[in-house]
Amino acid sequence: MKIFRTLGSKLTVAVGVIALVTIAIFAFFNSRSDNKNLLAEVERHANQLSEAVKSSTEFDMLLNQRDRIHETIKRLGNQESIQRIRILNKAGQIIYSSDTTEIGKAVDKKAEACTMCHSASEPLERVGIKDRTRVFRVHPDSGRTLGIINPIYNTTSCSSAACHAHPKSQKVLGVLDVTLPLAEIDRAIRQGQRDVVLLAAGAFFALSLIIGLLVRRWVALPVRRLVEATRHVAGGDLNYVIPEERDDELGMLARSFNNMTQRLSEARLQLVQSDKLASLGRLAAGVAHEINNPLTGVLTYSSFLQKRTKDQPDVQDDLKVIVRETIRCREIVKSLLDFARQSVPKKSAAAINEIIARAAVVVENQLSLNQVRLAQELGADVPPITVDANQLQQVFINLFVNASDAIGPDAGGGTITVTTSRLKLSPIGITQVKQAQCPKRHSLINAEVRIDGKPSIRVRARFEGNEGFIYRDPMYGLARHQFGIAPEPGMDVQVTCPECSSALNVHGSPCPDCGSATFAFEVPGKGMVEGCTNRACTWQRWAELERLGDRDFVEIRVKDTGSGIARDELPRIFEPFYSTKGQKGNGLGLAVIWGIVDNHNGAITVESEVGVGTTFIIRIPVEP
Amino acid sequence: MTARDILVVDDEQVITQAVVRVCGAEGLSVDVASSAEQGLSHLARTTYRLIISDVMMADIDGFAFLIELRRRHVRAPLIMTTGMSTMENAVRALVSGAIDFIPKPFTADELLAAVRRGLRFATLQDEAESTALDARPDSIAWVPPPPQYHRLGYASWLATEVSGTVKVGITDLFLRTIDGLQGVALAAVGDELLQGGRCATITTADGLEHGVLGPVTGRVVEVNDAVAAASAVIERDPYFEGWLYRVLPSELQYDLLHLTACSSDRM
Ligand SMILES: Nc1ncnc2c1ncn2[C@@H]1O[C@H](COP(=O)(O)OP(=O)(O)O)[C@@H](O)[C@H]1O
Ligand SMILES: [Mg+2]
Ligand SMILES: [Zn+2]
Ligand SMILES: [Zn+2]
Ligand SMILES: [Zn+2]
To answer: Rounded distance, CA B265 to CA B267, Å?
Structure first.
């Protein structure tokens, strides 16, 4: 589980950090502009204030009523929101101040109140509000203070006043300097910053939580299932299946995982099987050698004695038993050896197009007798298939010869067209169950009752004292079963192996279509096939087959312009010895073809129209 | 050099004694060797009409023994026998040049039938040789199968047909090694034949049964009614009228690897 935790938490942390950084950047710019706005507000307020001071003292200044000015400034300056108000003259002297102790003190032109106009070589006459304000600290550890300067200009009324006229050339008479404490605003700003940090942290945690949950749901759980599955598989349980309920990449992964385990289990089964066979073969060989020698002594002597004591009936009977039983032993050992006998595989990957070309060469002369042209339209994308090349060559030789016969010598020629292509087909309806077993490995295949010519799968059914056989259609999906006994839907039908009476019922899994009892048998190496006991129900399931999905087939069509086959003849042409050619034919060609195609798990069909021609269609699965 | 009837080579004493007992009762002289080496030293001193050899023996196995015999120009026909009584071994024995194969355990009659055929074979071989020496072409000992046929040992033949089926029959030489053919028991249509497995059983007047090892693996699609009705037709025309089965072979190309092309018999 550790790996998910890390994967999940890594994702969560990554997303959280990204969110955190985003929020921080946003908060930084947001609070900066907030601060600026606040400060601008204060500036505006300070400017208004200083204008108010100026205008309320202007008149008194004109009249040079210093006491009233002192009074006004002191009154205003004592307000809570104002730190200090003072008026400086050009000499840098503080003429008025709300702080009476500093009146008369001098500052020089370098003081903050003066620098804004006097920092350049030529003093500025007018400055904007921005340059008139300044934010500073009185002491490094005290709160911030905002100062605003308001120059007192030499107005006309001023220069022309009788009392204390200023020369006209003087443009600036003095400076009104108002300072406001910023403590209040700074608190608000700090408050705002705290809020932003809290918000960011909250968002970070909330986002992380949500992402964490989603990651858990969408990634960690499916991945955990995968790892769980790999652990099962590693532990040897190849039948473990991950539920495939999603169609994202992880769902795809689960699907391919399931596919892989299934292939693995098939391969392992084959391996186990072949391993079993190989060791059984060695065992059988050893047993055969060890047992057969002493058995020879018994059998030879007893049969020899039997020959020589023909006139002693009492001994004869005893000897007969010995001989019979020894021969029985011989048969047992022989069947052991037969069973262990592994046939050498004769199938190999071959290019069907090449096989056809070779068959064409073989029949060349025969076709030219009837002036038959053989057109080969061989698909370039036809994959190699696992076949017995010699057998398949025989198939095409027989088909070409038949086609040539059907065109005949009198038609003045004709054409055989052989086409190859690849196609994908659903396995349902075209896959034959060729092996079926009970849990004790008895074969359920029954060659006596055939359905559409193919051996059926026989099981015994029992219900309410009745007993009989059900013959299942070996073609999966067609459900043309034959019932030797007809249970009603919903009855408690016991299905067993006809040989050993092993139960085949699948308990607790009623038919999804009709609710009747179901049963299952094994197709060795290819999973279980389930079926319904209800005669009227066609439900069946071969999960392994359906999981594999559509299969690749190679299709070969052999089309001729010959006589065609009458409708009522069609069902018979594959029968051995069925021939319409009298002495010329033996009626085995198509029977041989049928056997070979069947041997390759393929299917052959025929389409024909009298007077127009015949097409034989062969489909062989690419994977055997 | 002395002359005896039979040399039996087997590392199991119970087998050699059984052979001595059964064949001795028939008036045949039998020598015993418990190993191939011992068998070879017997052969240096004595000529035998027939050799019976086991396959699995300690020092030299039956197949190597057979090769050694041919190298030493020992003409006596050899019957192979083994406890590993598989078709493969039967085929291998015949392909290697043994005239017959008897799987263990065998009954006294089975042994006797094979021994009688083997002795007849030796006689026919001698006759053929003297015919060749005398250059009297009118008295041919036996008729080999037509050149386009294939044969398994000297027991059975196979002829391929255009449709992909094969015809199966018994060779003339085999029929001549049995004395007084009375009947043939045949497989039925639909039966599976195995190459090296018994495909037919011939009964003879002496009450013995002679198994014919089949040349091909496949399903019987047709049985020759003429033979089923009157087995004498086999003797009269073993290669055409007297065919036994038409078989749908399942592994023909593979089976052909173990057969001898009859065209090579004439060279
Ligand atoms: N291409 C074809 N066109 C018309 N009829 C055909 C064709 N192929 C087969 N048949 C019919 O099917 C019968 C059986 O064919 P086959 O099994 O090959 O035996 P044979 O060729 O020896 O008669 C033929 O006799 C013929 O009537
Ligand atoms: Mg034909
Ligand atoms: Zn069973
Ligand atoms: Zn039940
Ligand atoms: Zn149902």
So the answer is: 6
Place of tokens 């007018």: A126
Residue A237, min C-alpha distance to chain B (Å): 38
* Sequence-separated (6 or more) residues with CB below 8 Å from residue B156: B168, B169, B170, B171, B174, B199, B212, B213, B214, B215
Dihedral over alpha carbons A542, A546, A552, A555 (to 10 degrees): 60
Work out the number of other CB atoms within 10 angstroms of the CB of residue A264.
Answer: 12
CA gap B125, B129 in Å, rounded: 6
- Burial string for A575-585 (b: 16+ CB within 10 Å, else e) reads ebeebeeeeeb
Beta bridge pairs of residue A526: none
Counting beta carbons within 10 angstroms of the beta carbon of residue A365, is it exposed (0 to 12), middle (13 to 18) or buried (19 or more)? exposed
Q: Where are the domains of chain B?
A: 2-137, 150-266
The verdict on a CB contact (< 8 Å) between B12 and A577 is: no
The CATH number assigned to the domain with range B2-137 reads: 3.40.50.2300
Which amino acid is located at A293 in the chain? N
Q: What is the pLDDT of residues A351-403, one digit of tens each?
A: 999 999 989 988 888 899 889 999 999 999 899 998 888 788 889 999 999 99
Residue A12 has pLDDT above 80, yes or no: no
Which residue, by CA, sits nearest to atom 2 of ligand 1? A403
Q: What does the alpha-carbon distance between residue A231 and residue B110 come to, in Å, rounded to a whole number? A: 60
Ligand 1 — pocket residues by CB below 6 A? Answer: A 398, 402-403, 406, 560, 562-565, 573, 578-581, 585-591, 614
pLDDT of residue A162 exceeding 60, the answer is no
Which tokens hold the place of A21?
A: 């950084």
Whether A172 and chain B come into contact, CB under 8 Å, resolves to: no
Chain A residues with CB under 8 Å of B11 CB are none
Per-residue pLDDT band at B267 (split at 50, 70, 90): very low
Residues 46-75 of A with CB under 8 A from B: none
Tell me, what amino acid is at A132? R
| Closest ligand to the CA of A492 | 4
Which pTM was predicted? 0.51
Q: What is the pLDDT of residue A14?
A: 81
3-state helix, strand, coil split of chain B in percent (to 5) is: 35, 30, 35
Q: CA-to-CA distance for A279 and A320, rounded, in angstroms? A: 35
pLDDT digits (tens, 9 = 90+) for A445-479: 998 898 887 899 999 999 888 899 999 999 999 99
CATH number of B150-266: 2.40.50.100
ipTM of the complex: 0.87
Residues in chain B closer than 8 A to A308 (CB atoms): 25
Parallel, antiparallel or unpaired: strands A454-463 and B260-261? unpaired
Determine how many CB atoms are found less than 10 A away from the CB of residue A535.
15
**Ligand 1 atom closest to Cα of A616?**
1
Question: Quick one: how far is CA B54 from the chain centroid?
Answer: 15
**Phi/psi of residue B244, each to 5°?**
-100, -55
- CB-based contact, A402 to chain B, within 8 Å: no
- Name the minimum distance, in Å, from the CA of A345 to any CA of chain B: 10
Alpha-carbon span A309 to B181, nearest angstrom = 26
A382 and chain B: CB distance < 8 Å anywhere?
A: no
Residue that is written with structure tokens 């000529």 in the block: B47
φ, ψ of residue A347 to 5 degrees: the values are -100, 145
Return the residue of A nearest to B253 by Cα. A390
Distances A556 to A430, A579, A603 between C-alpha atoms, Å? 16, 24, 11
Q: What residues does the ion ligand 2 have nearby, CB within 5 Å?
A: A 402, 589
Domains of chain A, CATH where assigned: 2-188 (3.30.450.20), 238-343 (1.10.287), 348-426+550-624 (3.30.565.10), 431-548 (no CATH)
Contact A178, A49 (CB under 8 A): yes
Distance of alpha carbon A119 from alpha carbon A17, whole angstroms: 48
